[in-house]
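User: Hey, my collaborator sent me this sequence without any context and asked if I could get a structure. I don't really work with proteins. Can you help?
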Amino acid sequence: MRGKIRFQKLGAHAGILMALCIIGLSTISLKALACEAFIEFADSEVQQIVDRALEPDPDFLAISAYRELFCAKRPEVRLYARGMGCKASKSDIRSIAIQDALFDKESIIVEPIVDDSLTPFEREWAIKNRFVHLPVSFRDKQNRCIGIQNNACSPYRYLSIYGEKVEFVNQQSPNFLAGQFSLNDDCALEGHISSTKIEIDMPARILLD
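Assistant: No problem. I've predicted the 3D structure and written it out in structure-token form, which is a compact way to encode the shape of the chain:
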């Protein structure tokens, strides 16, 4: 269930531990690929920004507050912002959290899920391809699109974000893969992948961190 998350005062270690408990993550990129630059905040400022993010309206204030936290210089604050964003009550903020998480990556990893619904061939393929990498080579924030192994969002190699849904096509890959995903309650993208070259259509997920 999505709900409000209250940010308590961060100590040197307490903030890190709390953030890890909230979304179960251990690392976060320090390169700020989704941000122009890092922002330095004191603990009191962080709490004030969180309070703004949790205001019922107007939406633009909450979105602005979330973006400030996501670009904070301290990794534990950014980690907390990611968890707060994907669990936010506002759909717009959840969507932005997806975009920020994916834009912050140098490679997006798709994990096929092995379950009883797979054919023998799909199961064998999934075991051999535990992690499918989509190298991020281009970011278009305005159109919410990522170029895969290409310096543009080509119709043949792209990942696009639509609200809380994500789709990708990578006809550069050996298996000509495509996938559709939606944000779940665990702050991950869950869906399925298929191929026009080989006979696979299976569940898969993308972890946002």
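In plain terms: The chain has a mean pLDDT of 79. You can pass these tokens on to your collaborator as they are.
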